[in-house]
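Known limitations

Files may contain more than one protein. Parsers should not assume a single record per file. Below, a two-record file is shown to illustrate correct handling: read the sequence, read the C-alpha cell line, then continue until end of file.
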Amino acid sequence: MSAEFYIIFENIDWYYSNKDKIKQKIMSLNTFIYHTNDEFWLKEDKQFNDLYFDIRLFLDDEYILLEITMHPANIEKDLKEFCNWLRLHTIIKIQDEDFNISNW
C-alpha cells in the first residue's frame, strides 16, 4: 500500500517556468534510478526493477504527486533535500490525499 502526497505551488508560473530545473534536480538525487517523460523513480538500492520503487514523482500540470511505498533513511534524506531546494526558490505546501498539510 502506498501513500500519496501533493506538492502544491503557490506561484504556479514559477513551476511552469522551472519544470526543466525541477527534473534536473530530481535526477541529481542519489536515489534516483529511472524516469520516463514526467515520471521519476527513487529507490533505496540502485537495481532497476520495473515492479518496485520506493517513491515515484509525477510532474503533473499543476502539482507534483509523490507516491510513496517505502521511505528508508536515504530516501527521506533525498526527499527532504528536494523539498528544501524547492523552498529556496518558491513557496510550496505538501499535503496528503485528504488535504492534510505535511510538515516535510
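...continuing to the second record:
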Amino acid sequence: MRTVHRVMFSSLFVIGLVWGLGFALSLAPGMDTIESIGISIALGAFGLTSAAFWPAGYVLICDYIHSRLDKNGAFYLKYAESLQKDLVISVIGAILLFLVYWLDSADYSSSGIDIAFIGVPLLIGAFYSLIQCCRLKPFGNPVAKVVFLKKTLPAVMYFGVAIGLLIKNSSGELSFPQALFLQISIVLGGLQSYLGCSLIQYSLTKEEVHPSPFIEYFYESVIPSQSGITKKVAVDVRLTNQRWKQRKSERSAEIRHSQKSSKKNKKNNSRDRK
C-alpha cells in the first residue's frame, strides 16, 4: 500500500504542478503594465496553490477514510462520524451529476460551472465552521477572533480569484483544459478547507487536539520529510493536548468550586430568612 500511496501522491503532484503552471501562464496577460503584472502574479499564485490541492487532497481523503474506519483512534472516529452526513450528500450529488452528463445526449460544455459547485457548499461549510469557532469559549475563554480572521484571509483571496475565473469560464473565455483544472481544483480546495476547518471546530469544542496517525505515517514513511517536520509537529500537538488537559481539569475544578460556593450561599440565605 505504501507504493500505491507514493505513486498516487507523486502523480497528482506532477499533474497538478504542470497543469497549474500551464493554467497560469496561458491566462497571464504579461508584464506590460502594473495592472497586468498584478494579474499575472495573482494567477501564478492561484495556479501553484491549486496545484498543491491535488496531492494534499489525496492525503486528506485517505486520512478521512482511515478515521471513519476507526484506524486513527476514537477521537478521529467521532470527528469523521460528525462529518459523514455532509460528505455523503456531496458524494451522492457528484454521482448524480455524473449520471446526468453520462445519460444526456448533448455534448458537455466546458463553459459550465456545475462541477465546481460541488465544492462551493463545502467551502461555505468551512467558513461557517470558522464563524462558529469564534463563538466558542474553550476552557471558559473566548477564542481570539483576530487569529481566525488572519488565517481566513488567504483562503478568501484564493476563492475570490476562483469566483472571478468561474465567471470568465461561464462567459466561455476559458478552454476546456483550463475550465477542467479550475473546477477540479475548486472541488479539492473546498473539500480540504471543509475537513480542516471542521477539525479545528471539533477540537475546540471537545477541548482536545491529537495528531493524525495516518498523516504521521504518510509523511514519515510514504513521503518522508528530510527536516523531520512531521515528528516536530506531532510532538508540539501532543504537548498542546497535555496543556489543554491541564487547563480543562483546572476549569472543571473552578466550576465545582463555584457550584459548592453557590450552594453554601443559598443555604446561608435560607437560614438567615428563617
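Parsers that stop after the first record will miss the second one. For reference, the second record is described as follows. The mean pLDDT is 85.
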